[in-house]
Amino acid sequence: MPAQPRSVPETFAFACGDCGHGWEATFQVMFFTDPLDPAGLTTQEYVDEAGRAVRSPLAEAVCPKCGGRKVRVLEAGLAERARKAEHERGEHPPHHRHRPHLPHRAPERPD
């Protein structure tokens, strides 16, 4: 009879490089050891919050808002702290105003 797999909850924070959306998700990381493997190697599987087995969220994350694949994995809690900081200071700091940057003209030389 195979041994029951060990399970460890792990929370990851994500940020989408396409749309800027941030979110967190908790996965159950299941560790399996093959009793017939003489080396005793352990494999792991991720199970999402809905109970579905998924590939590693560290390698295959997709933004739930825009479907983008430019997703970075952050320290858990970091996405929420960044969202809160943006909300507290507003979209742009009050001292910052956007102004057009025009190229400088070279002074004309007299002949």
Pick out its properties.
alpha+beta; 32% strand; 5-stranded antiparallel β-sheet; 5 strands; 2 helices; 111 residues
Provide an overview of this structure.
The chain has 111 residues and is an alpha+beta fold. The protein has one domain. The protein is built from 2 helices and 5 strands; from the N terminus they run ββββαβα. The protein has helices at 57-60, 78-89, and strands at residues 6-16, 22-33, 42-47, 53-54, 71-74. It has a 5-stranded antiparallel beta sheet. The longest helix is centred in the C-terminal third of the chain and has 12 residues, at 78-89.
User: What integer value in Å does the Rg equal?
Assistant: 24 Å
Low-pLDDT runs? none
Overall pLDDT score = 78
Strand order of the largest sheet: 4-3-2-1-5
Helix content: 10-25%
Number of strands: 5
Order of SSEs: EEEEHEH
Structural class: alpha+beta
Shape: elongated
Count of alpha/pi helices = 2
Residues in β-strands, percent: 25-35%
The profile of the biggest β sheet is: 5 strands, antiparallel
The structural domain count equals: 1
